[in-house]
Amino acid sequence: MQDIRSMSGTTFEADAENVMREITSVLDPSKHKGQAGKIAVIGGCREYTGAPYFAAISALKIGADLSHVFCTKDAAPVIKSYSPELIVHPILEESYNISGLEDEERRCISSKILAEVDKWMERFDCLVVGPGLGRDPYLLECVSEIMKHARQSNVPIVIDGDGLFLVTNSIALVSGYPLAVLTPNVNEYKRLVQKVLNCEVNDRDAPELLQSLAKQIGGVTILQKGKSDLISDGEIAKSVSIYGSPRRCGGQGDILSGSVAVFLSWARAKGKATTSQMNPTVLGCIAGSALLRKAASLAFKDKKRSTLTTDIIECLGRSLEDICPAC
Ligand SMILES: NC(=O)C1=CN([C@@H]2O[C@H](COP(=O)(O)OP(=O)(O)OC[C@H]3O[C@@H](n4cnc5c(N)ncnc54)[C@H](OP(=O)(O)O)[C@@H]3O)[C@@H](O)[C@H]2O)[C@@H](O)CC1
Ligand SMILES: Nc1ncnc2c1ncn2[C@@H]1O[C@H](COP(=O)(O)OP(=O)(O)OP(=O)(O)O)[C@@H](O)[C@H]1O
Ligand SMILES: [Mg+2]
User: Fold this and answer.
1) What integer pLDDT is reported at residue 327 of this predicted model?
2) By Cβ atoms counted within 10 A, which residue in 34, 120, 275, 300 is the most buried?
3) What's the domain count of the chain?
4) Which of 252, 294, 285 is nearest to 266 (CA)?
């Protein structure tokens, strides 16, 4: 792959540490609970309980005040048992649980689910949609409605994992929404490019392709995960290549989605106070990517081959502290 730092001025390595310093929320005794961030993860089903937990707990470990999880009824007790810190709402339903019900009853259940999320919606600084969500059609239909409501309320949405499966098949959900951030891995990116640009991924022109994709979806921000993370909102493209870890254990993308949610909330709260004047969604992606990579590197130094996602989560605080000391 061409070295993107040598490209014609359109893409270059982000000054990630400065971005983190610029946007990280200051610890100030005059602030009240919630001002450092209220994040909600929409995910967690019968198969996957780890992914929403990783995203939600990472948000807290970085410095958010409150982290909610909206998941299916069977996933909730499991996720609650991982941590008393998370606020877990057992509200989502999968088809197997409502089989045999009439269409009218199904519609009634969807409306109740939506009303439950709506009670909280305006309080959230960011939603993370998709970690461990699964692909049940009934559940995804409800989540589409939740996303439409988030959009009406101008709540930023980070979309990962199965949320990307949903969005790839219903691109209108995010199209033209500047507060949407997509965080695809290699596979998820390939599917998006095929669907939206009707072509195959070509490593040689990676930043240009990413920029076209973000533009084509109406200025959403995309963080393309890989050996280097590439970030574009359709206007600019940045890379984060800080060395992370050679371990590719599952769940690191989930940490990233929670981290991006927190940093983008902080970047939005700073508003025009950031000197870089960059889109807050791009700043959030740069900081989230850099922090995950630093934490992965720190965890690997200690745990080597046995490094797991939970070890990386334990290193998030120290990694941020090295760059932005708390006091
Ligand atoms: N503990 C938990 O609860 C976790 C739950 N998770 C949740 O799982 C759900 C599905 O997410 P996903 O990432 O497994 O689905 P998808 O992208 O279709 O990949 C499937 C297959 O694609 C391949 N593949 C992957 N990367 C590749 C690469 N770089 N280059 C080449 N191939 C690559 C690889 O195929 P294989 O090598 O096995 O043939 C892989 O098995 C989603 O909800 C997510 O949040 C995860 O977050 C993990 C922790
Ligand atoms: N080859 C690589 N070298 C270094 N870092 C990588 C590599 N691939 C991915 N990463 C980093 O790991 C993080 C997670 O990316 P990954 O592609 O594993 O996401 P994912 O497949 O969605 O993970 P998850 O298992 O949580 O679903 C990203 O920040 C990415 O930069
Ligand atoms: Mg993933």
Assistant:
1) 81
2) 300
3) 1
4) 285
